[in-house]
Specification:
Radius of gyration: 33 Å
Strand content: 15-25%
CATH class of the largest domain: Alpha Beta
CATH architecture of the largest domain: 3-Layer(aba) Sandwich
Number of helices: 11
CATH topology of the largest domain: D-Maltodextrin-Binding Protein, domain 2
Shape: rod-shaped
């Protein structure tokens, strides 16, 4: 079996018109080129070149071998180009896990855009509120939204999105109960709560002032869409990440309450095991999701 490297050195020597010129092109000693061509001749059992201090001429069989050597080099370059194109265009399957609200408000608009951009990529989204061990369960990426910093782990973390939690209510509720002018006024209003355990809302403004208030608990749900629908029905005031309530505000189904005040911030982070994060397809998905505009998708977050 011929050594393709020997064919490469031989073709370079012929194209360059000599060993010295080929060595300069290849960035190696002239003796290396000469030895590789001599090895090729020994392997084939024929003389490929008539060479002297003044001449460098192909033999008849050398011309035939040169034609095949050039063809082999062209095929090798084509094979390399195929690999480079595949690396440039992500392909393969990428498994993502996310909670229900994160999938609804962070990924539902983004992933179709991703699929159109990379048609050779296959994304599998697994939606669950159960904690997933990425390594043990074979996932490439987890998208997690959280209030506090995530604990240290061996997973690579990449920030995706951060937003305020704001107060909203239906226009009908405000029309009936009046609009609170200060956080303290919320004590006289109905609140839509995430838990039966009564916890005050901790609000803050741009100056850093913080106030804790406890509205009257009117409705409880541990799911963001259910709380938003209750607010749209006029049951009371609710704290939601801006992206969850944004469409309702744009459509006029909700209005902001105390817009100068927020009830904290939600951060969304992309996590991936170190080795999987080096795969071109996984890296392309992470880079896409981390874009602020996600190629035109509306960024959002949920907890």
């Amino acid at each position: 079996m011929l050594n393709l490297n020997d064919l490469h050195f031989f073709a370079q020597a012929v194209d360059s018109g000599g060993f010295a010129a080929a060595a300069r092109r290849l960035g190696c000693p002239k003796s290396t080129v000469s030895k590789r061509v001599a090895t090729l001749e020994a392997t084939l059992g024929v003389q490929l070149l008539h060479r002297s201090s003044r001449s460098f001429v192909l033999t008849e069989v050398g011309r035939d071998v040169y034609d095949h050597a050039r063809a082999a080099m062209i095929e090798a370059e084509a094979a390399e180009a195929v690999v480079n194109r595949r690396l440039a265009e992500p392909s393969g399957t990428v498994r993502i896990t996310a909670s229900v609200p994160t999938a609804q408000f962070q990924l539902a608009d983004r992933l179709p855009v991703l699929a159109r951009r990379y048609p050779r990529l296959r994304v599998q989204l697994h939606v669950t509120d159960r904690f997933i061990d990425l390594v043990q369960e074979g996932f490439d990426i987890a998208v997690r939204s959280h209030f506090a910093a995530l604990p240290d782990s061996e997973l690579i973390q990449r920030p995706m999105h951060e937003e305020d939690i704001t107060l909203v209510a239906a226009p009908s509720y405000i029309a009936q109960g009046g609009e609170p002018a200060t956080p303290e006024d919320l004590e006289d209003h109905s609140g839509l709560m995430t838990s039966l355990a009564m916890k005050p809302w901790r609000l803050s403004d741009a100056t850093g002032r913080t106030v804790e208030v406890a509205p009257r608990p009117q409705f409880h749900a541990d799911e963001s869409v259910a709380l938003m629908r209750a607010a749209e029905a006029g049951l009371g005031i609710v704290c939601l990440p801006e992206s969850i309530s944004a469409q309702g505000v744009r459509d006029g189904r909700l209005v902001q309450v105390l817009p100068a005040w927020t009830a904290g911030r939600v951060r969304t982070t992309i996590l991936t095991p170190h080795k999987r994060g080096q795969l071109p397809a996984v890296r392309a998905v992470i880079d896409f999701l981390a874009q602020k505009d996600a190629a035109g998708a509306h960024p959002s977050a949920a907890h």
